[in-house]
Amino acid sequence: MGVVALAALLGLTLGVAALVVSLALLAGFQTHIRSRLLAETPHLTVTPAGRDAFTPADGLAEKLAALPGVVSVSPVARGRIWISISGRTAPAQAVGRAGTTGLVLDLSQARPLGAVAGDDVTVVSSRTRLSPLGPVPIAVSMAVEKVVPASTGRREPEAVLPLEAARRLFALPEGGASAYEVFLADPRRATLAARGVVDALGGGVSATTWEEANRSLVLALKLERAVLFATVFLIVIVAGLNLAATSAVLGATRAGDAAILAVLGAPPRTVARVFLAAGAGVGILGTAAGALLGTAAAVVLDATRAIPLPAHLYSLAHVPFRVDPLELGAVVVLSVLWSFAASALPARTAARRRVAEVLRAV
After folding, report:
1. Is the pLDDT confidence value at 52 over 50?
2. What are phi and psi of 126, to 5 degrees?
3. What residues does 183 pair with on adjacent strands?
4. Among 52, 120, 294, 343, which has the highest number of CB atoms less than 10 A from its own CB?
5. Once rounded to an integer, what is the mean pLDDT over residues 66-89?
6. How many Å apart are CA 224 and CA 229, to the nearest integer?
7. So where are the chain's domains?
């Protein structure tokens, strides 16, 4: 009996520890991805509804900045361009932002053009302007300021232009904007803030949150966590079945003791509780040991940076681990509940055995 109980205890301990470490690994990577996503994506993007662009007369920047929770508001000009360099031309989605002095290209945009920092390029807009010879494309020349790593989660990479150059390319008036990018003090409240923007400014604007702009990636991260949790929790389920076998063996070997309790007047419910407490006690002890072991392993692996990564591929020098208290609590609760459930049926069966038959066998 002691060997079977020890096997059940170790199985549950290792199962819970594996689940905690796996979730900490996934949480570490997802936290890094979300931080990059929030650094590259505005928390809210406010665009006009029913018209092409905002004008300075709208005073939208001041209205947005006055809303609660807003940290900064920046006008942007978006449109489609063609980039030409050394006889090579490629289309690109572009955005004009203040504070940019040259053309900033995504790595996936620069590679087909063979562009590097310092190259002179010609940027041609998809819009045209009238001239004595008829409509002609709007074009500007500028230097490539830098080439940045591929963006996270965005469907299509964006080239970044100086704001004034983008306004000329996309035929926007001075001070005009095709959208406003809003950063919040708490990005988790982006959905609530988007409703507040629409309510405060009326139906002339629409607000897109950072989660909506990266819907597919956010959904993939949530699905990945749910699938990993369900898959690794199978180890805990198997350990719980081992615990059920332990409770069944306990009920068979201690049938005489249960019969004596029944003769002394203990009802079947009390006898069942004795066997349930024995099985659940092993489950609680194994769960606690596994949670402590998994948490300690995750903290040590993250602190010591024990698993290195090629930084040029993952933008990380080591595998990150992050223990989420809510997930840890969910693992502990589910494991304990499963331990009780696995021990309940053998305990109930042992309590319902006929006393006369047990005593005759003894």
Report:
1. yes
2. -75, -10
3. 72
4. 343
5. 89
6. 9
7. 2-37+217-361, 42-213
Q: Residue 102 corresponds to which tokens in the numbers above? A: 């040259």
3-class secondary structure, 160: strand
pLDDT tens-digit readout, 272-323: 566 667 667 778 888 899 999 999 999 999 999 888 877 666 677 788 999 9
- Sequential DSSP letters for 100-158: --SEEEEHHHHHHHT--TT-EEEEEEEEEEEETTEEEEEEEEEEEEEEEPPPSS-SS-E
CA–CA separation, 291 and 14 (whole Å): 9
| CA–CA distances in Å: residue 323 to residues 4, 61, 283 | 31, 40, 22
d(CA 8, CA 18): 15
Q: Please tell me the distance from the alpha carbon of residue 251 to that of residue 71, in angstroms, as a whole number.
A: 64
Give the C-alpha separation, 237 to 249, whole Å: 19
The Cβ of residue 293 has, within 10 Å, a number of other Cβ atoms equal to 17
3-state secondary structure 224-246: HHHHHHHHHHHHHHHHHHHHHHH
